[in-house]
Amino acid sequence: MGHVDHGKTTLLDVIRETSVAVGEVGGITQRIGAYQVNYKGRKITFIDTPGHEAFTSIRARGARVTDIAVIVVAADDGIMPQTVEAINHAKDAGVPIIIAINKIDLPNSNPDKIKKDLTGYNLVTEEWGGDTICIEISAKKKTNLDEFLEMILLVADLNEIRGNPNSEGTGIIIESRLDKGLGPVGTVIIKRGKIKVGDSFVAGDSFGRVRSIRDENGKKLEEAVLSQPVEITGFPSVPKAGDKLFIVKNEKVAKELFSRKDYERKMMKVADSRKSLTLEKLSELAKENEIKKLKIILKADSDGSLDAVEKSLNNIREEKIKIDIIHKAIGAINDSDILLAAASDAIVVGFGVVPTQKADVLYKKENVEVRTYDIIYKLIDDITLAFKGLLEPEVKRIYKGKAEVREVFKLPKVGIIAGSYILEGEVERGNLVNVIRDGKLIHEGKVATLHRFKEDVKKVLSGYECGVRLEGFQDLVKEDTLEFYEEK
Ligand code: GDP
């Protein structure tokens, strides 16, 4: 992962070229977003989805594919916003990080500066007594690539990264597509056991049978083993990236599995049903004394406000509280922020900034809480109240429709009924109403009853006339405008 143009693609390409068996080189055209290299008799699988968005969106679905994150930083450029994002995404995922300081062949490269800057993100290189592995490389000149691969193996060993080759086959889908000839195809990384042609499996909420397995070079295989990236066919429909794939005995077992209550959880179909944390929920938890930690992704419009908000957040001193700002940056709330929040159960706080268009769609889909503020004390208030269990639920007004009063009737015992025409939307009994006269709001109230001819009705749609009676308000006149809405 890393900032654009820092050399991720180049690095992946040269490793691939230099590490495959000589005889194969000419014939290789990588078809899938992951590949395996051999180094000193051991295998390393590189997942070639260089953006951390892909990394985190798979994680947001509850799956963990990556064992080690390599973050590429160009030595002539330094730590950039996307580098910081990548660092924080990897940190939150809890995977070991290797920093590859790239482009050291360039005369203006300054690896020491990068190492120094990294300390600002709590990544202290080993040379300076820390535990972050930094390796200086040049992807272009192929400098230190062996050492780089060596480091990956070392980190794998130190962290005891292992899988069980003998347990039931399980994989995670990292990519999928619909192939004209082959049908639905999924790129799968095997996380446990092995997967063989003919095996029955469940993936997401569907059942299938492995029809074919190919490696990243298109070579047909009979089976795929631990950590191998392969393309599998036999899905009934196109699977989703992030779905898990389990080998099962047969269709009967699959059906049993589907019907089990814990299936959803097991398959971690999280995006749809994820219990996302919101300040309101936090408030509920606080009432029950269950709070532990609130993770926040903080975006602000300037360095100054970022610092100020961070300081104020860190100053909140309530018992039981721990605020953890897992990522902070200047700029609009982007989709990567949302994905990180979804993956880590964080909330996103914007100060003087709002979500980008894409992020706006995404946060609703992912059920992520996004809060935007312009005033620090309001932000701090909300969070403090949430921690104390006192946060009032946020009320949203939802516009329903608009009507024009065309006639006013006075009925004995009942009161004023406004004969109205629904101009747009609809109105429902019990809706809230704004009465507007000559452009001024003259009353805020509630719709008591609605009538069509002699009938009491519950709802009236636009284009129809109806009688509207408001609760405790008798002062309607012809040509008043009624705006209806509800509160949620
Ligand atoms: P990505 O956006 O991170 O995938 O970056 P690319 O791999 O596309 O590289 C961006 C540019 O940097 C390309 O022009 C590469 O040729 C160049 N580049 C990559 N690695 C090196 C390196 O080690 N040294 C030098 N001088 N240039 C490099």
Explain how this protein is built.
Helix 2 (52-60) packs parallel to helix 3, helix 2 packs parallel to helix 11 (335-344) and helix 9 packs parallel to helix 13 (376-388). The radius of gyration is 29 Å and the shape is globular. By secondary structure, the chain is α+β, with helices and mostly antiparallel strands. Helix 10 links the parallel strand 16 (294-300) and strand 17. An eight-stranded antiparallel β-sheet has the order 10-9-15-6-7-14-11-12, covered by helices on one side. Strands 20-21-26-23-22-27 form a six-stranded antiparallel barrel. It has helices spanning 8-19, 52-60, 81-93, 111-119, 145-158, 251-259, 263-267, 270-273, 279-287, 303-315, 335-344, 357-365, 376-388; strands at 34-39, 42-47, 69-74, 97-102, 133-136, 170-179, 183-192, 195-196, 200-203, 206-209, 212-214, 220-221, 223-224, 229-233, 244-248, 294-300, 323-330, 347-351, 370-373, 397-411, 415-428, 432-437, 440-452, 455-457, 459-461, 465-470, 481-487. The longest helix is centred in the first third of the chain and has 14 residues, at 145-158. The protein folds into four domains: 8-158, Rossmann fold, CATH 3.40.50.300; 170-272, Elongation Factor Tu (Ef-tu), domain 3, CATH 2.40.30.10; 279-388, Translation initiation factor IF- 2, domain 3 (Rossmann fold, 3-Layer(aba) Sandwich); 397-487, Elongation Factor Tu (Ef-tu), domain 3 (Beta Barrel), CATH 2.40.30.10. It is built from 13 helices and 27 strands. The site of guanosine-5'-diphosphate has 16 residues, from helix 1. Guanosine-5'-diphosphate is lined by residues 2, 4-10, 50, 102-103, 105-106, 138-140.
